[in-house]
Amino acid sequence: MKADFKVVDRIIESYGCKKNSLIQILQDVQEKYNYLPRKFVERVARKLGVSLSKAYAVATFYKAFSLNPRGENLIRVCMGTACHIKGAPEVVEEFSKILKIKPGETTEDLKYSLETVNCVGACAMAPVVVVNNEYYGNMTPGKVRDILKKKETRKG
Amino acid sequence: MKQILVCGGPGCLAKGSREVFEAFKRKIEQNKLHVELQLKETGCQGLCQKGPLVTVKPGNLLYTEVKSEDVGEILDKIIKSDSNYDRALKKDEISFYKYQTKIALRNVGEIDPENISDYIERGGYEALKKTLHEMTPEEVIDTVEKSGLRGRGGGGFPTGKKWRYCRNADGPVRYVICNGDEGDPGAFMDRSIMEGDPHSVIEGMVIGAYAVGSRQGYIYVREEYPFAVKRLKKAIEDSRKMGFLGKNIAGSGFDFDIEINRGGGAFVCGESTALMRSIEGNVGEPRAKYIHSVERGLWDMPTVLNNVETWANIPPIINKGWEWYLSFGTKTSPGTKAFSLVGKVKNTGLIEVPMGTTLRDIIFKIGGGMIEGRSFKAVQTGGPSGGCLPAEKLDLQVDFDQLTKEGSMMGSGGMIVMDDRTCMVDVARYFVNFLLDESCGKCVPCREGLKRMSEIMGRITHGLGSEKDLEVLEEICWTMKEASLCALGKSAPNPVLSTIKFFREEYLKHINEKTCPSGVCKHLTTYYIDENICKGCHVCVKVCPTGAISGEIKQPHFIEEDKCIKCGSCFDACKFNAVQIRGMKIDD
Questions:
Q1: Alpha-helical runs (H) found in B466-508
Q2: Single pTM value for the model
Q3: Which of B152, B301, B341, B470 has its CA 20 to 30 A from that of B10?
Q4: Which chain B residue lies closest to A140 (C-alpha atoms)?
């Protein structure tokens, strides 16, 4: 725990402990821990001298932040306009059905998190799914199982 | 020396261009071809549909859909300069490229964005030197003002005027900001510039900073674009090293530096005042604009905020003069505009055309028309702030004013082509729900208006709507336009109003006949297989994710309605058009 606080403190210091770096600091903390644990948000707020309510206002306003642990694999289904008209809703539904979680949730074994994003800017390949940082273009509900299978075999 | 340019844009990367690049690299090393061949990974080369793309210079030859297995053969042809090789397309002759004019995207796809010498070689940082050594700030503003450049982020406010207001405003310090929070779904022009030519943005910002008298700039980039952040960081470091950023830029005595801020995934932060609150480390809520940002913006200081594409346009305007820039485009909207041409069109990708080009030319000449067998229904521009234009408007000359006049908007430049399989009611509902999710909730018209609109749209797409709903929708729309605090709320009604205006019939079908003629709204759609047409080829059975289709080979198949999730995979897969949607054909 102490070591973790040190990591967080180092992030805070790298931004010169400036109040206006709150968002950047929280982003770095999340990058490190995959989500924003409460104790770290408290730590950041205290160190920067901003109220905890403000830190939480920021952490809940911006979609990039998650207050709950996220899965090992982050599946992000693009819901941009091009993806929408080319069938992204069916792709999300298929992921939901197989993984038995809704967008924004994580499987119990912490293996997968499913999220929808506004647009990943790869519209020419619509519909697009980004798993961790890998892009899958021209998605169909049928390809969903293939992606998940690939993830499973890679692990095993 | 010959150059091999492998596209590293988002589309090509998703199709495996990195492997192609590595394959070239290996082959070149194996055969010791360094002396005669130069290999580069570039930003987006545009024709994303046909990726991975490889361009070979000289000759500007384009190879499409390149796989790593093809590399050996292609390399062989390049070395032999075999111009008869049928896989090599002449870029200057293909209609996708032929009708384009590139100013903002001049270097995107042409240079290695991580190499500052590439940028300099193509005339980069010349405008910066010219500005700092030969021009007064007044002259810079004058040039930009006379060029007629209007903000490429969507609103179209004259850039020169903005700069002048900022320069004349009182304040101890001034800031310049680059808005790289490209939030409009279906748009990736700014991403392509930030990733493909980051120095053009930096150079533009230095020139702007000199003109308004600023010493600190910020680039605000969406968190969904980690690659853009990486490229910009590298570019900023490199230009500092070369003396184009930092203290005493290019020996002129002018100081200016840039910081990068990553966004937090909030669409509303694309709105200028919300973006500034976000840079300050706050929740990104907009404020009323009776005090302009040019007077009191970031930290209440005079601030100029321009979009990525606007900044990228500045260096060529300085280099070639305002008269040159005025020779492109229309009277009220000079210059060119980058668009991401996507949706149900053959050639999806990144394009740039002179303002005033017709929608028809963009979609049918550059875009190559609709994807196989589908007919054009509408084109959506301006993201959630824009509208949908029908086939009657295809001859509209695209510029800021023409689009606004028709109830749409330029927006940042997303252009989404829709076919007869796109339900306009569903599209309007999609945007309403998108904005409902993204509304910051500060002002009542936007927060409550979107909520009520979403409910009504939901009812209509579930077959529970009435004609009275359309009246209520329109009333809410006009109230929101009138009374919302920021542009998000003011323009949110556009998708609804424009679809009601141009596609009223389709709304009425949902309401009165309880059918969705495009087969999108699930509660109103039934798929069936026409027994007389079905050849029993079994393709639909293979693509169906739920096993809802059955039938013997060479016998007509059928769909079990309770298993069908209405994804339309079978409809798209059937080569004989045997899969049909109830209500789609007029005679049904």
A1: 467-483, 487-491, 494-502, 504-508
A2: 0.92
A3: B152
A4: B569
Mutation target among B339, B430, B494, B522 for the A interface, most CBs of A within 10 A: B430
Check if CATH label 3.10.20.600 holds for domain B336-419. yes
pLDDT below 70 — which residues of chain A?
1, 154-156
Alpha helices by DSSP H, listed for chain A, are 2-14, 22-33, 38-48, 52-61, 81-85, 88-99, 141-155
**Which pLDDT tens digit goes with each residue over A49-68?**
999 999 999 999 998 899 99
Burial group, residue B502, by CB count within 10 angstroms (0-12, 13-18, 19+): buried
Is B416 close to A82, i.e. CB distance below 8 A?
A: yes
CATH of domain B526-581: 3.30.70.20
Closest chain B C-alpha to A60 CA, distance in angstroms: 9
**According to the model, what pLDDT value does residue A44 have?**
96
pLDDT in tens, B370-399: 998 789 999 999 989 899 999 999 999 999
CATH topology identical between B116-325 and B424-513 = no
Cβ of B245 under 8 Å from any chain A Cβ? no
Distance of CA B414 to the CA centre of its chain: 4
Q: Which residue type occupies B49?
A: Q
What ipTM, to 2 d.p.?
0.90
Q: Structural domain boundaries of chain B?
A: 2-93, 116-325, 336-419, 424-513, 526-581
Q: B424-513 maps to which CATH number?
A: 1.20.1440.230
CB-nearest partner of B284 from A19, A61, A93? A61
Q: How far is B551 from B564, CA to CA, in rounded Å?
A: 15
Does the B116-325 domain belong in CATH 3.40.50.1820?
no
Q: Is B440 on the interface with A (CB under 8 A)?
A: yes
Pairing of strands B216-221, B257-262: parallel
- Residue A125 pLDDT: 87
Q: Enumerate the residues of chain B whose CB falls inside 8 A of the CB of residue A141.
A: 545, 565, 567, 569
In this predicted structure, what is the pLDDT of residue B155? 82
Assigned fold of B2-93: Glutaredoxin (3.40.30)
Does the distance separating the beta carbons of A125 and B11 come in below 8 Å? yes
**For residue B588, what pLDDT is reported?**
38
Cα distance from B10 to chain A (closest Cα, Å)? 6
Please indicate whether, in this complex, the C-beta atoms of A21 and B430 are within 8 angstroms of each other.
no
Nearest to B14 among A57, A85, A125 (CB): A125
pLDDT at B278: 96
A-proximal residues of B, 122-141, CB under 8 Å = none
**Spans of chain B below 50 pLDDT:** 586-588
